[in-house]
Amino acid sequence: MTADRPLSALALVCSLKKSPTPSSSELLAEQVCEQLRKAGVLTEAVRCVDYAIAPGVEADMGDGDEWPSIRQKLLNADILVLATPIWLGHPSSVTQRVLERMDAELSNTDDAGRPAMVGKVAVVAVVGNEDGAHKVVADCFQGLNDIGYTISAQGCTYWNDHAMGSTDFKELDEVPEEVASATAAAARNAAFLAGALRDAQYPPYQ
């Protein structure tokens, strides 16, 4: 990273539970952020369900829409941590709404024709009590890549209970080593890639 400005990351926690209810998605997002901070990245987290995010694909959907304040944080951040639970085998409905709102950034381009999120890095964190984390990660990766985000090597971390299980990630006595290792790798690689892209942007689109 350059000496004049540290990298920054925004974690969008797409739990269905409003604050201050404990959230496994928020816990895993915080673990990613902790690893990012070790790499010198400034972090902030937003639990999206605490905000009135209107349905739609515009940057601002009008009166009562609280997405614009979150959007500005996204535009300012070098790294996005998208954290979602699994419900019925899919990312949460909050996650889908967030991705739909970010679709507006495809038409928000710089002087070189690059969409606003091109040059930014995304990490996905998934928790659930059923199988399907790889599928949920893949769904999120595809949407984020379409929007313009770059996915770093091993750019996800996840935890699943066994099939038909009832344990939540936040209820574990300790984080499994495999999850901790994946979280550290995702954060480390994202910080490296975000620094590289900030210092050497993608070629102009026009």
From TrEMBL:
NADPH-dependent FMN reductase-like domain: residues covered: 10-145
Listed InterPro entries: Flavoprotein-like_sf, FMN_Rdtase-like_dom
Organism domain of life: Bacteria
SUPFAM superfamilies with a match to the protein in the record: Flavoproteins
Gene3D superfamilies from the UniProt entry: 3.40.50.360
Protein known as: NAD(P)H-dependent oxidoreductase
